[in-house]
Amino acid sequence: MSMNSQSEPRHHSLISADRVEGTTVYNTEGEKLGHVEDVMLHKLSGKVAYAVVSCGGFLGVGEKYLPMPWSLLRYDTNKSGYVVPASRSTLQEAPSFASQEMGADDSDWRDRVHTHYNAPAYWI
């Protein structure tokens, strides 16, 4: 009998980016903040720079896109989502951008994002 039954759940430490997109994001108080809209990678180092979290809005109108340093997101198996140590007020003051700006790359802007969340830069 095989130890690897198809009916048993399989847990892996790796996940494809397309499965991360759409995952719900919560704060430590359990409030639903939004969902992962995209994952941004640094082309040269291959490291994940940040997750773009879509907050608010209805049917794409009024949404705010928040880049969050990837190092902040912790996956919670009980919630089937990511938890970030950020209050709603921290998010209201966070750097954000419109959907058409999502791929923009400016080192000063990236530094501002990491400083806002007091998170280490991903490239270090």
Q: How would you describe this protein?
A:
This protein has 124 residues and is an alpha+beta fold. It has a single domain (17-116), classed as PRC-barrel domain (SH3 type barrels). Helix content is 15%, strand content 28%. The protein is built from three helices and six strands; from the N terminus they run H-E-E-E-E-E-E-H-H. It has helices spanning 17-20, 88-92, 107-116; strands spanning 24-27, 32-41, 48-55, 64-69, 74-76, 81-84. Strand 3 and strand 4 (64-69) form a beta hairpin. Residues 1-8 have low confidence and may be disordered.
Instruction: List SSEs in N-to-C order.
Output: HEEEEEEHH
Largest sheet: 6 strands, mixed
Describe the global form: globular
* Count of discrete structural domains: 1
The number of E-state strands comes to 6
* Helicity range: 10-25%
Number of helical segments with 4 or more residues: 3
Strand order of the largest sheet: 4-3-2-1-6-5
Distance from N terminus to C terminus (CA atoms, Å) equals 47 Å
Structural class: alpha+beta
β-strand percent reads 25-35%
Could you list some keywords that capture this structure?
124 residues; alpha+beta; SH3 type barrels; 3 helices; 6 strands
How do the helices and strands line up, and which of them pair or pack?
Blueprint: H1 17-20, E1 24-27, E2 32-41, E3 48-55, E4 64-69, E5 74-76, E6 81-84, H2 88-92, H3 107-116
